[in-house]
Design a protein that fits this description.
This protein is α+β, with helices and mostly antiparallel strands. The chain folds into three domains: about 100 residues, no CATH class; about 160 residues, no CATH class; about 180 residues, Sandwich (Tick-borne Encephalitis virus Glycoprotein, domain 1), CATH 2.60.98. It is built from four helices and 31 strands. Strands 5, 6, 9, 10, 23, 24, 25, 26, 27, 28 and 29 form an eleven-stranded antiparallel β-sheet that branches.
Length: about 450
């Protein structure tokens, strides 16, 4: 009978609008939840009749939730280096356990990137989920194959201290073209291969306090630069030059004090010697320069540090970007070398590619982890989980792990957080319409009840 069906229809309205109220309530409650995705109530008819043009039987309504997971919220700036968001498609991979992925690991996916280190140094978000990443090798490169089983929880407290050996040294200096030729050159007493005839031998006597020096030849120009060994030890390398002829200079490089090296000319700290040639316009002539001066130089340090390989960048052939020979005074213009002394971890940084670097007090930054992003064919079909996270479902499609910016994945936005996608004005409007619809459904029930009462009163 249609009256009883009308009652059922009204009851279905009460249930559907109650469910819709719950969805709106959750949206409003999560207005400030980082990475929260709005859930919308979609209403669908319930049909109980078969195809007929002469009768009608009411069925009612049902409320179906639609999670707008693929919708991106606004990215808001943050002061924390470990607050992360994703600009584009993709999800962070998180775990309920602080251990590498194994058969017992519960993996889920989230856009809630408010990560902070816990007491053990693991990055966790406000829901207590561990951020997962892939460890990078010593060269800062990720593994060839990006697979779920290769992920590890990111720990920022177990990063060790480090130093970096010097591998490159750049010099810019001018050697005076009008420098008088030394008597040691005209008298043929200069010889870079002997202690008695080299600039290194002269400097070694000075360092040893032998004044006047009994060995070596005084340079026309010299300057000092600092370099570092593999353990972060600081050493001084001297660049010394002695004019040999027009457009030709003798060059030696030696360590001061000589006791810090075992290679080269014994007792002098000399690590390399040769001649530098110049063109008529004062620029470097590489063809006439001793090749050894331009190739990596092996330096054997004392004290047990690994041998260093240092390349001396003295300039470009035909350009005045390194050592030059002009009429001005011999002078150092600039010098620089890479490498750093021993330093401790002072923080971390994350770039747009999801590469996490450890920052050290000596100024070094070492790449240690990279964040993979998970993408899905239908992110709106993911299953919602506790802690504002999601898991794979039949509707979402399979998981695809990618690095940021690859294959449709978005980029990591460091020091930002993704705001909730809830529109408060829209939710309040929905509250009003749901409330009115609920009241109308109650009217259906009371009206049907009154009609049934009248029907019962027919027989008294």
């Amino acid at each position: 009978m249609s009256l009883f069906a009308s009652l059922a229809s009204g009851v279905s309205g009460l249930g559907a609008f109650s469910a819709a109220l719950g969805m709106v309530s959750d949206n409003i409650a999560n207005l400030n939840t980082i990475g929260y995705k709005e859930t919308r109530a979609n209403f669908s008819t319930l049909v109980t009749e078969s195809s007929s043009s002469t009768s009608y039987s009411p069925g009612g309504v049902q409320a179906l939730p639609q999670s707008l997971i693929s919708r991106q919220g606004l990215l808001q700036s943050s002061t924390s280096a470990t607050d992360l968001s994703i600009d584009g498609a993709g999800f962070f991979v998180v775990s309920t356990r602080g251990e590498p992925v194994n058969p017992n690991t519960e993996i889920s996916f989230t856009r809630a990137g408010s990560f902070t280190p816990n007491a053990d140094g693991f990055l966790k978000n406000t829901a207590g989920l561990f951020l997962m990443g892939v460890p990078l090798d010593s060269n800062g490169e990720p593994p060839a194959n990006l697979v779920l089983s290769g992920l590890q929880p990111i720990n920022v407290s177990n990063l060790t201290s480090t130093a970096e050996a010097t591998t490159s040294l750049t010099l810019r200096a001018n050697l005076q073209s009008s420098q008088p030729i030394s008597a040691a050159v005209t008298g043929a007493t200069y010889n870079s291969a002997t202690v008695a005839g080299s600039m290194a031998g002269y400097a070694a006597d000075i360092a040893a306090g032998v004044i006047p020096p009994v060995n070596g030849v005084k340079s026309d120009f010299q300057t000092n630069v600092q370099v570092f060994d593999a353990r972060g030890g600081v050493h001084t390398v001297t660049f010394a030059a002695l004019r040999q002829a027009d457009n030709l200079w003798n060059v030696e490089m030696f360590v001061d004090p000589p006791s810090e090296v075992t290679s080269g000319l014994a007792g002098t700290g000399q690590i390399i010697s040769g001649q530098m040639a110049f063109n008529g316009d004062g620029t470097l002539n590489v063809a006439g320069t001793t090749p050894a001066l331009l190739n990596p130089v092996t330096v054997n340090w004392t004290g047990g540090a690994n041998a260093g390989n240092i390349t001396f960048d003295l300039g470009t052939d035909g350009l005045s970007d390194g050592i030059t020979q002009f009429a001005g005074d011999s002078t150092l213009i600039s010098s620089s070398s890479n490498g750093a002394t021993f330093g401790n971890v002072i923080g971390v940084s994350v770039d747009k590619d999801g590469v996490i670097s450890a920052l050290f007090s000596n100024g070094l930054a070492k790449k240690v982890f990279q964040l993979p992003l998970s993408t899905f064919q239908n992110p709106d079909g993911l299953t919602r989980r506790q802690g504002n996270s999601y898991t794979v479902s039949d509707q979402s499609g399979s998981l695809n792990l990618k690095f940021a910016g690859v294959g449709g994945a978005g980029f990591v936005a460091p020091q930002t957080l993704e705001a909730s996608t809830v529109d408060l004005a829209g939710e309040f409007t929905s509250l009003i319409t749901i409330q009115r619809a609920f009241s109308a459904s109650t009217k259906i029930i009371t009206t049907a009840d009154e009609m049934l009462t009248e029907l019962n009163n027919i027989k008294r």
